[in-house]
Write a structure and sequence with these properties.
Methylamine Dehydrogenase, Chain H; 3 domains; 6-stranded mixed sheet; 11 helices
């Protein structure tokens, strides 16, 4: 099931407002760069609602129940829209705050009906749970069954008894809710870490809601490994307004946002920049336009932006999508050696990795200076057949670990360590000391994966492990299933993988390979001929098949970066391309990279 966040379309009113703004702008010869930002007006003003639509008169009870499962997707006024379908007594007793469950294809099954009373059972496939803070969690749990008692009130069927908690149809969820991204800082303060939320909020209340969620902090286990600059002793001070101080319709149309943070004046310069990065990236991603006038205890947070305010471009360097950009080009394995794909063809790389013919997989550090690769040792049993080699690009390499199987290595964003899994159950970090050129091997604690108290235990073996560029998450395939775990650094300097969350639930075939696209999306390959390549968000939402046009399964390896996706299928290496005149996507063979031993290699 593909789930996408719904977006509201424009209207004739919007068009008229845009024309009015354009007429104003065309009357201006130029705007001085030093002028303070001014609100040019308000567009996209949301229509005034007179309240939720009442139930359809004369509705049969089974159809009324289906309407009810649509109405529950409106959380306004404690789900007032849904409460209209209940008797006053049932509405008073119903607690909508206990849980929110998203279901697919609900059935309304009649159990009994006698005059003005009826009993129904709602049966549906659980898809996800939504927490109060908007965090989405995909589930693969038993079918939901709720017993519903109905009575006639003044000739109309109403719900008289129902379990606590909200149940909503996925179709209604996608219409009412939209995905937003909160941003926090990684431990080093070098990149922003995304935290996805699904909200149903009027646009004129969205700025306040997002900032409130930022101040509450990240959701779940990731809270232990990220930094939040909008936390005690820093807090919002005074009202949120447009850049010119107008308190009405903040975040709707033009005019920017003005925010004052108490306690922020005492922050270091770097922490002020991280605070601005969190706030600006979060608001910009939500289509709340700038300029963003950020104050610290009543004075500019940073004097450089005192006049014109902050823009998304000023903090874009913190974006995980920017951090994940491929800056060293495409490489590939061919005939067991590391090669570089250039405009003039495929050429062998210099040094050890380009001169051998026994490499099974390889990974490049983000700056392209280091290489980690799995080599066929060529030794007879019972000697370990695989060796993890680490070295410099164009230089020598040396063995750091061996085993019966070793996963494709994965470098951290700063190139300090390459991660791999030995024999499916032992995770290691090959830590590189750039000052001395030495590499040490450090074991990683994975007990939190196999004995997670918060959910079902992950089953070994681990056959793929990829570290995100933010460094705080790891995507992995275990027993053919896809998980996202938290990378936790311990006080003693050790590392652990904890809190695994299943993200590609309900797969009918086993996953075989995966890769990060930016900071919140995974590209996944799986067995079989039907939808062998898909994308999914890190919370398990928006599972979206990628075109299989020109693919010849099985898909063996995938690798990705923002704007670039590559796979290796049964014929060779292919790149996802698009038609310049349409939105049609298809896979294109890479010249010189044919055969079952060819595989694409990108940094990471």
């Amino acid at each position: 099931m593909t789930m996408r966040a719904a977006r509201l379309s424009g209207s004739t009113g919007l068009t008229a407002a845009l024309v009015a703004v354009l007429l104003v702008l065309t009357g201006c010869a130029s705007l001085p760069e030093s002028s303070a930002p001014q609100a040019l007006g308000t567009i996209d003003r949301e229509p005034t609602s007179e309240g939720p639509t009442p139930p359809i008169a004369g509705r049969d009870p089974d159809l009324l129940l289906r309407d009810f499962l649509q109405a529950t997707a409106d959380p306004t006024n404690r789900h007032l829209a849904a409460r209209q379908y209940m008797t006053p007594a049932a509405s008073a007793q119903w607690d909508d705050s206990t849980s929110t469950t998203i279901v697919e294809k609900p059935d309304t099954l009649l159990e009994s009906r006698d005059g003005d009373r009826a009993t129904y059972r709602i049966r549906a496939q659980r898809m996800a749970e939504l927490s109060a803070d908007g965090a989405y969690r995909a589930v693969n749990e038993p079918t939901l069954e709720n017993k519903i008692e109905m009575v006639k009130v003044d000739g109309e069927w109403r719900i008289a008894e129902l379990p606590d908690g909200v149940v909503m149809d996925i179709t209604a969820f996608t219409k009412s809710y939209r995905r937003y991204v909160l941003y926090f800082a990684d431990p080093s303060g070098n990149t922003a870490v995304p935290d996805l939320r699904w909200l149903s909020v009027p646009k004129n209340q969205l700025t306040q809601r997002l900032l409130s969620l930022l101040s509450e902090g990240p959701h779940g286990a990731i809270g232990a490994v990220v930094r939040n600059q909008l936390a005690t002793p820093v807090a919002l001070r005074g009202p949120i307004t447009k850049a010119n101080g107008d308190p009405d319709d903040v975040g709707v149309g033009l005019g920017g946002v003005r925010l004052d943070f108490a306690g922020a004046a005492a922050l270091s310069q770097r922490d002020k920049e991280l605070l601005a990065g969190q706030v600006v990236l979060t608001l910009a991603q939500a289509d709340i336009p700038g300029p963003y006038m950020l104050l610290a205890d009543g004075r500019p947070l940073d004097e450089r932006y005192a006049t014109n305010g902050w823009s998304a471009a000023d903090v874009q360097y913190l974006s995980p999508s920017v951090q994940a950009q491929n800056r060293i080009g495409l490489h590939a394995l061919r005939d067991g050696a590391l090669t570089q794909v250039t405009d003039n063809g495929v050429v062998e790389t210099p040094g050890y990795f380009g001169s051998v013919n026994n490499l099974q997989s390889a990974a490049l550090s983000p700056d392209g200076q280091l290489v980690a690769a799995v080599a066929d040792a060529g030794r007879p049993a019972p000697e370990p057949p695989r060796t993890l080699m680490v070295g410099t690009y164009g230089g020598p390499a040396f063995p750091v670990a061996e085993g019966g199987s070793i996963t494709r290595p994965s470098w951290t964003g700063d190139g300090s360590a390459a991660w791999a899994v030995i024999d499916g159950d032992r995770v290691i970090r090959a830590v590189n000391d750039r000052a001395t050129g030495t590499v040490s091997v450090q074991g990683v604690d994975i007990s939190g994966l196999t004995a997670d108290p918060a959910g079902p235990a992950l089953r070994l073996p681990i056959t793929e492990l990829r570290i995100s560029r933010t460094g705080v998450r790891a995507a992995l395939i275990a027993d053919g299933k896809v998980y996202v775990a938290v990378v936790e650094r311990r006080p003693d300097g050790g590392y652990a993988l904890t809190a695994p969350v299943p993200v590609a639930v309900g797969l009918s075939t086993k996953a075989t390979s995966l890769s990060w696209i930016g900071g919140d999306t995974l590209l996944i390959a799986r067995e079989g001929n039907i939808d062998p390549v898909s994308t999914v968000l890190i919370d398990g939402s928006e599972w979206t098949p990628v075109t299989s046009q020109n693919l010849t399964p099985p898909v063996r390896v995938i690798t990705a970066a923002p704007g670039a996706q590559y796979v290796a299928d049964s014929r060779g290496v292919l790149e996802l391309t698009s038609n310049t005149t349409s939105e049609l996507h298809y896979w294109t063979e890479m010249p010189g990279l044919v055969g079952t031993d060819a595989a694409p290699v990108l940094p990471g």
